[in-house]
Design brief:
Layout: E1 2-4, E2 7-9, E3 16-20, E4 23-29, E5 39-45, E6 54-56, E7 60-67, E8 70-74, E9 77-81, E10 86-89, E11 95-99, E12 105-112, H1 116-123, E13 125-126, H2 138-147, E14 153-155
Antiparallel strand pairs: 1-2, 3-4, 3-13, 4-5, 5-12, 6-14, 7-10, 7-12, 8-9, 8-11
Length: about 160
């Protein structure tokens, strides 16, 4: 990344990359680069992967689909998002996304204000350590659930199926 008086320039393929529960998160800009105004992450979501339902208490998230087909839930609304689709989820709204396609999907995610990127980095595996999507273990999921409250993030557990 190049930082100068003109701002930030990230060329294709640049940014800090991490595996978050099997998906690739590449940070194009973080809060330290934007006076904490926002962070921008490019996410490559593996087929049948995505996020659990969750609610942010501190930030809004906006998404722009670049490749693939993702199913988004925004409260009770379900939307199938294809390339060119934009979605905005204000803080306090339950939301999730899942790659419903057979190929990896790619999207941009803006987090406003910045700060949530620190959560992703805390629970992630740096790409330099593993070059292919890692298998997600129960310990990985527990790490996410344990860290979430420190960032004002509520993970919604699946409904009890008893």
């Amino acid at each position: 990344m190049t930082v100068n008086l003109q701002g930030v320039v990230q060329q294709p393929g640049q940014g800090s990359s991490y595996w978050v529960l099997g998906d690739l998160y590449t940070f194009k800009v973080v809060g330290e680069d934007t006076s904490k105004a926002y962070a921008l992450v490019e996410i490559t979501v593996q087929p049948q992967s995505g996020t659990p339902p969750h609610i942010h208490s501190q930030e809004d998230e906006s998404f722009y689909i670049q490749e693939g087909e993702l199913e988004f839930q925004l409260d009770e609304q379900i939307v199938v998002a294809t390339p060119g689709t934009f979605l905005h989820s204000p803080k306090g709204q339950l939301h999730r996304f899942t790659n419903v396609g057979t190929q990896p999907a790619k999207l941009l995610c803006w987090v406003t204000p910045a700060g949530l990127e620190k959560f992703f980095i805390e629970v992630a595996i740096p790409v330099g350590e593993i070059t292919q999507p890692p298998t997600v273990s129960p310990a990985d999921i527990e790490k996410v659930i344990a860290a979430a409250p420190r960032y004002g993030l509520e993970i919604i557990p699946p409904p009890d199926t008893k």
